[in-house]
């Protein structure tokens, strides 16, 4: 119990964390409204194809993330009190509309316990907070890459095809998208480390460097895919599906993750990671990742290079490959200088 208490209080839930969690919960609801409003705008402009693609990029991720989160809730309650269908339904609705609401609830309860100087309650609330933050970070990852990423690829493809459609507001949304995607990955990786008591937390310098190389990779991949989609929309879509199937199947065979109670659910989850791998690599299971990064980054670099040589203009090709090479350089620096409690030989 003493070890657990030490681990529990090795990282405190600060007022800043509570405020940021509240902002995240609110922004999730605003993002949903903005996504549906964007579909309505396309419909008003009689761009029905874009409208249908936008709606599909909202509904499909919503169904997948709801399945994933319901599975997480059911698995986490195995051996405990049975899950009531009505409670599960409202948890799913609340989770979709306000993704961080439950996390915010535990941060507030932790704060109340701290004011009462109730150490036992603080430990309980902190453990619940870590568990929920890890689960929500897991789902938020899919929100970003299954919902936000396809929409931004679509919007960027429209801009690249009709450059006059680029407005200051749309440029700002692209900037926010790239920053939020990179930060989502940083938060996901950090929450995974926080729940593993044998691992050190990432320091601020490491978080900044990690954010920069993730930003570089996602910008490079998004611009490349968006430009190809502006030229060959259906062919690019088919190539992305092939990439998802390939990466998802490899993850299912190599890592054999046990997310769900059935192999079908595990394979679906691996395919959702395959969708993430269109843009960036993130480990599914704990362990050395050096050779996985080498294989993945080599595959993506060859894809980018092939597209740039044949179809993409020189100025855009330099930007795409420049971002990618900068990402590789920053990632090497991160693992050599900033990764907590680990040497380059293990990475």
UniProtKB/TrEMBL annotation:
Transmembrane portions of the chain: 15-38, 50-69, 168-188, 208-229, 236-254, 266-284, 293-312, 318-336
Keyword Transmembrane: yes
Signal peptide residues on this chain, from the entry's feature table: none
Subcellular location: Cell membrane; Membrane
Principal place of residence: membrane
Pfam family, one: XK-related
Any one Gene Ontology cellular component term annotated for this protein: plasma membrane
Top-level taxon of the source organism: Eukaryota
Keywords: Cell membrane, Membrane, Transmembrane, Transmembrane helix
One Gene Ontology term from the biological process aspect of the record: apoptotic process involved in development
Membrane topology: Multi-pass membrane protein
Similarity field: Belongs to the XK family.
Descriptive protein name: XK-related protein
Gene name of the encoded protein: Dvir\GJ19443
